[in-house]
Amino acid sequence: MPHALIVDDDPGTREALAAIITEDGLTTATAGDLREARIQLVRQMPDVVFTDLKLPDGTGVDLFEDLDPRSGVEFIVITGHATVESAVSALKMGAADYLVKPINMQRVKAILNRLPRAGDLKAEIGTLRGELRRMGRFGLMLGNSAAIQQVYDQISRVAPTAASVMLVGESGTGKEVAAQTLHQLSLRRKHAFLAVNCGAISPNLIESEMFGHERGSFTGADRQHKGYFERANGGTLFLDEITEMPIELQVKLLRVLETGMFMRVGTTKEIETDVRLIAATNRDPEQAVLEGKLRLDLYHRLNVFPISLPPLRERGKDVELLAQAFLDELNEQHGTRKHFPPAVKDMLLSYPWPGNVRELKNYVQRAHIMSGSDSDSTATVPLQITLSKSTAGTAITIPFGTSLAEADRQLILATLEQCGGVKTRAAEILGISLKTLYNRLVEYGNDAGRGDENDGAEEPRALGKADA
C-alpha cells in the first residue's frame, strides 16, 4: 500500500491532509519539524512527501535534499502566498507539485489521483531512453543527434513535474510535437492535451476561446461555451506563439497561473482549473519582453523550465532519419514501396532547411506525389527556395540606428515582395503566423494587408495550422 509522509508545524494542516490522504487508500505518517521527518524516513520510506517549505528547524527543501534522487519519492511542497517563488524554485529542483495555503483539498485529491502512476511513468521514461539509443526515437520525437538528445534529456527530467515549460525555437522545429511528448510522459497523460495557436485567433474572440462564455454574454453567444482552460482541466494546455497573445489577456492568464481560478465571459462566478501550461514562441522571449509583446511577470511564470529546440540545419544526419520516417509513413498510407535515390539523399543533407522539419515533411510529400504510381523511387523534386543564395534584389540594408519596428517593417515588406505577394509563403519564411503577418500589414497601412488573388485557397489552411 502506498505510504505518505506529511511534514508541517501546524497540527490542523497535518490532520486535514492525513484524513484526505487516508481516504484515498494511502497509509500516513506525520511530523512537525525536520528532525521528526528524518526519523520517519528511517522508519519507512514514503512514496510521497507533503512538506511545508517553512519549518521550525529548517526548510522543506532541506528534506528534499536528504532524499536519494533514485528513490522515486514524489515530493509535494506546501507554501503560503508570500513564498510562491520558493515553491517555483523547488519545482526546478525536481519537486512534483506544490500546494498554496489555505490548502484546497480538491487539488490534493487531483495530485493523489496522479501519483499512483508515477512508478510506471519512470519505467516508461527508461524504456523510451533505451528506444532512443536503438532507433533514434523518443515518444513522438525522432532523431539521434547530440543536439536533439539534449532536448530529450530535458524533457525526461521536467515531464513528471508540475513546472511550466517554455519551448523556444524557429518555426517548424517541432515545438508542438515536443509539447505532446512532454504531456505523454507526464502524470497528466490520461487527461486532455489541447493546443492553441495564440496568433491564429481573432483578438476579439481569444478571451472567449480561452475562458469560455455564458449564453447571451455578447452578440452571437447563443449557447454556453467552455474554453480551453475548462476543457483541459487535469491535463495540459499548449499555448503556441504566446508573444502574439494580447497584453490585456496576458494579465488574466497570469491570474489563472497564480490562483488556479478563472471566470467565463459574461459571469462573475469563479471556476477552478488544474492545468499544466506549456508555452512556445519562435521569437526571442526576452526581446519580446523589451518590445512590450510579452509581460515580464508572465514570462517569469512561464519560463520555469526553458527548452530550446535546435533548427534542423544543426541536427546533422537527423535530416535523413526524419525524411525516411516521413516516406515510410506515406508508403504505409498509400501501399507503395518508394525509396530515396542517392542524389536526393545528398541534396537533403546539403540543404539548410530554413523551414526546418515542417519544410522537410512537405518536401518528402511532394517528392512522393511527383514520382508517380509506377516508380519505386521518389522523384528528384527541386527545392522551392534557397535562402543562402545572394542575388540582386534578395537582400536589404538597414542602417545603424534604425529602430527595431522599422527594421521589422522593411524585412516583412521585402520578403513579401520576393514571394510575389503570396502571404502564406512569406509568413513561413519569416517564421510568423499568417494572422500575425496580416496584423503587421494592416499596422503598416500597406495595400497587401487587404488580401489579393495570389493567396488563393491556401489561406484557410494556414490560418488553422499551429506551429509544430
Topology overview:
Elements (H helix, E strand, L loop, with lengths): L2 E5 L3 H13 L3 E5 L2 H10 L4 E5 L1 E2 L2 E2 H7 L7 E6 L4 H10 L3 E4 L4 H10 L3 H18 L1 E2 L2 E2 L3 H13 L6 E4 L6 H10 L8 E5 L8 H6 L16 H4 L4 E5 L6 H13 L1 E3 L6 E3 L3 E6 L3 H6 L5 H7 L2 E4 L9 H17 L7 H9 L5 H15 L33 H15 L4 H8 L3 H11 L13 H6 L5
Parallel strand pairs: 1-2, 1-3, 3-6, 6-7, 10-15, 10-16, 11-12, 12-15
Antiparallel strand pairs: 4-5, 8-9, 13-14
Helix pairs in contact: 14-16, 17-18, 18-19
CATH superfamily of the largest domain: P-loop containing nucleotide triphosphate hydrolases
Return the structural class: alpha/beta
Please count the helical segments. 20
Taking Cα atoms only, what radius of gyration do you get, to the nearest Å? 25 Å
Fraction in helix: 40-55%
Please tag this protein with its features:
alpha/beta; Rossmann fold; Helicase, Ruva Protein, domain 3; 4 domains; five-stranded parallel sheet; 20 helices; 16 strands
Task: Please characterize this protein's 3D structure.
- The chain is of the alpha/beta class and 468 residues long.
- It has four domains: 3-103, Rossmann fold (3-Layer(aba) Sandwich), CATH 3.40.50; 120-308, Rossmann fold, CATH 3.40.50.300; 312-370, Helicase, Ruva Protein, domain 3, CATH 1.10.8.60; 404-463, Arc Repressor Mutant, subunit A (Orthogonal Bundle), CATH 1.10.10.
- 44% of the residues lie in helices and 13% in strands.
- The strands form five sheets. Strands 2-1-3-6-7 form a five-stranded parallel sheet, with helices on both faces.
- α4 links the parallel β6 and β7 (97-100).
- α14 crosses α16.
- The longest helix is centred in the N-terminal third of the chain and has 18 residues, at 118-135.
- The relative contact order is 0.08.
- Pfam families: AAA_lid_14, HTH_8, Response_reg, Sigma54_activat.
- Residues 448-468 are annotated as: Disordered.
- Residues 141-369 form the Sigma-54 factor interaction domain.
